């Protein structure tokens, strides 16, 4: 099966930014999308708007730190659309600050959402993929895991842990059932950095994002590119960043 049309795609973190853009892009190309996040008002509005444009979309309240919520997301895809072809494990938070500030609660929150949340998605989706004989895991990691910069150690660490888990899973799954893709965006103009706790860091990264950031639609197109490949072609790692990013 190649192309996006007709695929069933569940997306975490679909209420804004990259996840929302991916939902619109994939639905526009004929995928049925199952949207998960905590802000259900935004998810419902997005699903409604996709349906109004003739697409297929379902929305449900998902907190990726809760394993059961990922099980519900996968189950809903199968109940509503008969199967799950792709899980885009995209939900993430960036509480950027120097390690020495010892913001332990922020470290825990990033580990819970960015790492544990993706692992919960793998745990929920893999049994379904194995039963179906095929499936595709796409994760949104980051260029900050590729180039170490001050202030992003724990954030980058969670992203690199996901990259590592996916690569190990890929090597463990050479029977042709599973495709894995790690998308590494650079600066993208979204709400991500509005939640940075440290005011100085927040102002700095907000400036960088508004000056350099590319649109989330660019990452959405990269996600669609990975998904549209024929079953025997796996896009493993994709980096997508502003041309001017150092
Ligand atoms: P946004 O803040 O716009 O989106 C983050 C999404 O994650 C929201 O939909 C949010 O939904 C969801 N989310 C956060 N916590 C949870 C949770 N506990 N359970 C479920 N969903 C959750 O930022 P982006 O679109 O930029 O971020 C998307 C991904 O891209 C993240 O993983 C981020 O790390 C990654 N990324 C972003 C870059 C950028 O420059 N913007 C660069 C590199 C990677 P809600 O609050 O409604 O639950």
UniProtKB/TrEMBL annotation:
Record InterPro entries: KR_dom, NAD(P)-bd_dom_sf, SDR_fam
Entry similarity comment: Belongs to the short-chain dehydrogenases/reductases (SDR) family.
Keywords tagged on the record: Oxidoreductase
GO molecular function: oxidoreductase activity, acting on the CH-OH group of donors, NAD or NADP as acceptor
Origin: domain of life: Bacteria
Name this protein carries in UniProt: NADP-dependent 3-hydroxy acid dehydrogenase YdfG
Transmembrane parts of this sequence: none
């Amino acid at each position: 099966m190649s192309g996006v049309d007709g695929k069933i795609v569940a997306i975490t973190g679909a209420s804004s930014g990259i996840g929302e853009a991916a939902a619109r892009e994939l639905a526009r190309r004929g995928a049925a999308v199952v949207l998960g996040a905590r802000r259900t008002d935004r998810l419902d509005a997005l699903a409604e708007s996709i349906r109004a444009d003739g697409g297929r979309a379902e929305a449900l309240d998902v907190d990726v730190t809760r394993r059961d919520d990922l099980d519900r997301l996968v189950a809903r895809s199968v109940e509503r659309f008969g199967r799950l072809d792709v899980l885009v494990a995209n939900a993430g938070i960036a509480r950027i600050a120097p390690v020495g500030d010892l913001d332990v609660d922020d470290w825990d929150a990033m580990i819970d959402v960015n790492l544990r949340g993706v692992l919960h998605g793998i745990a929920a989706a893999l049994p379904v993929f194995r039963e179906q004989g095929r499936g595709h895991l796409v994760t949104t990691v980051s260029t900050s895991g590729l180039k170490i910069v001050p202030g992003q150690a724990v954030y980058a660490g969670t992203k690199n842990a996901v990259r590592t888990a996916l690569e190990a899973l890929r090597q463990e799954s050479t029977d042709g059932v599973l495709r894995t893709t790690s998308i590494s965006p650079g600066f993208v103009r979204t709400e991500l950095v509005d939640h940075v706790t440290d005011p100085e860091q927040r102002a700095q990264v907000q400036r960088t994002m508004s000056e350099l950031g590319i649109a989330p639609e660019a990452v959405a197109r990269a996600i669609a590119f990975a998904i549209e490949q024929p079953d025997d072609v796996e896009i493993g790692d994709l980096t997508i960043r502003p041309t001017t990013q150092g």
